[in-house]
Design brief:
Elements: H1 16-22, E1 28-29, H2 32-40, E2 45-50, H3 59-73, E3 77-82, H4 86-89, H5 103-118, E4 130-133, H6 135-138, H7 143-150, H8 156-160, H9 163-169, H10 177-180, H11 182-197, E5 199-205, H12 209-223, E6 228-232, H13 260-268, H14 272-282, H15 287-299, H16 305-319, H17 321-334, H18 345-352, E7 357-360, H19 366-372, H20 379-387, E8 391-393, E9 396-397, E10 414-419, E11 423-429
Parallel strand pairs: 2-3, 2-5, 3-4, 5-6, 7-11
Antiparallel strand pairs: 1-6, 8-9, 8-10, 10-11
Helix pairs in contact: 11-12, 13-16, 14-15, 14-16, 16-17, 19-20
Length: about 425
């Protein structure tokens, strides 16, 4: 790799809307012609909300942040809303009631998620990102004022038709009034941001469409103004399964929850059928470069060039190019393409965490480690593999069946055990 692509719009598009459509980032929207014209004109203020229902943003949030960055590059003004109040309630899931988090926990997550958003959006210039917290305007509002000023504009029949609400109404447990009211709170947010910042566009996932339009309808009824909403497609794997925390397969943007190495491997392992779509949505590569990679997928899929570029670009955007370079070096070194002892020990530690692992002392037998990590099925098979030259420790071939890990440990902490070319295990020193 020669470094990540510059973070910029593709100059071959006349309008940022056209680029968003080409990249597959528009699943649904309000009046397309009016929205396209708005984005082609003077800068407008737009927002996207992130609820603190977990200690980190994740892959679905990254899709929104990249759309926000593209709009910001086009001159528009982003508001990043972290939901200090909506995070206390939780958007209703189609399956069951959310567990409410403690107020102190939500407050901590609000602060951290706000900082995360600033990593992806520019804080410079006339359209610098601004952080907002909806607790600032909901906390002072009385219940009576909320019902009189906001609630009167919502019709229960319409609210019941929202997909998540309808699904829960048909379930055994039903839905609480708190979660039922979530769409009213999100509508209140959009109206408040319109009044405070002249915000005219809200972004969100397509599964949030009912909440997005709750805001546009509230602004229309209460203020007589036509605002806009844009729903992006859900991010799914090649089989159509959604990635996310509720599905248990979230990819987190916090390096302590999903390491840079694990993130790189996630993108590297994407299927040929969806890699081009992911390049469009999650990178700033030009359509000319993506077309080249699409041809590479068709002509030489075994090289997985598109996946390698995707992994490098997205991991660099999230964690920086320097960290990604270390990850790439670690990935290569694991398979004999570099010196393991020259790697950043923390990155090497991340890489080893994905492998079968055995805990040893320096005088532990290599044969035993082979058996315990299931690289072989027995000690006799381990002995044969060693004497045949098929075993290595830290990319150095082992030929003595009596070998131990003494003098072979990296950073006195771990080693890479290999049988053959591609079967690996991690060895860690007993603490």
């Amino acid at each position: 790799m020669t470094g990540a692509a510059p973070i910029r719009l593709d100059p071959t598009f006349d309008n940022v809307w056209d680029e968003l459509v080409w990249r597959g980032s528009v699943h649904v929207s309000t009046d397309e012609t009016a929205l396209r014209d708005a984005l082609a004109g003077d800068p407008i203020t737009f927002y996207c909300g992130f609820d603190p229902t977990a200690p980190s943003l994740h892959l679905g949030n990254l899709a929104q942040l990249i759309v926000m960055r593209r709009l910001q590059l086009a001159g528009h003004k982003p508001l990043a809303l972290v939901g200090g109040s909506t995070g206390l309630i939780g958007d209703p899931k189609p399956t069951s009631e959310r567990q409410l988090n403690e107020r102190e926990t939500v407050a901590e997550w609000v602060e951290y998620l706000g900082g995360q958003t600033l990593r992806f959006l520019s804080e410079d210039g006339d359209n610098a990102v601004r952080l907002v917290n909806n607790l600032d305007w909901t906390a002072p509002m009385s219940t009576v004022d909320f019902l009189r000023e906001i609630g009167k504009h919502f019709r229960v029949g319409t609210m019941l038709k929202k997909d998540a609400v309808a699904a829960r109404m048909d379930s055994e447990d039903g839905i609480s009034y708190a979660e039922f009211s979530y769409q009213v709170l999100q509508g209140l947010d959009f109206r408040e941001l319109y009044l405070r910042h002249d915000c005219l566009l809200q972004l969100g996932g397509s599964d949030q469409w009912g909440n997005l339009t709750a805001g546009t309808e509230l602004i229309r009824k209460a203020e007589g103004v036509h605002a806009h909403a844009l729903g992006t497609p859900l991010i799914t794997d090649a089989d159509g399964r959604k990635f996310g925390k509720s599905e248990g397969n979230a990819v987190w943007l916090d390096a302590n929850l999903t390491s840079p190495y694990a993130m790189y491997q996630f993108w590297l392992n994407q299927d040929d059928a969806i890699v081009v779509s992911l390049l469009q949505k999650f990178t700033f590569l030009s359509r000319e470069r993506i077309a080249e990679l699409e041809r590479a997928v068709a002509d030489e899929p075994f090289r997985r060039e598109a996946q390698r570029v995707l992994a490098y670009e997205v991991t660099s955007f999230v964690h920086g190019s320097d960290t990604t370079d270390e990850v790439v070096a670690a990935s290569a070194a694991l398979f004999g393409g570099g010196a393991l002892d020259a790697l950043n020990p923390d990155v090497l530690d991340q890489a080893l965490s994905s492998l079968p692992t055995v805990t040893v002392t320096p005088d532990s037998s290599v044969l035993e480690a082979l058996r315990e990590t299931k690289l072989v099925s027995s000690l006799s098979e381990a002995r044969r593999a060693v004497t045949q030259g098929a075993v290595s420790v830290n990319n150095e071939r082992i030929t003595d069946a009596e070998s131990t890990f003494e003098g072979r440990l990296l950073h006195q902490r771990f080693a890479v055990l290999r049988r053959g070319k591609k079967t690996l295990a991690a060895v860690r020193v007993q603490s």
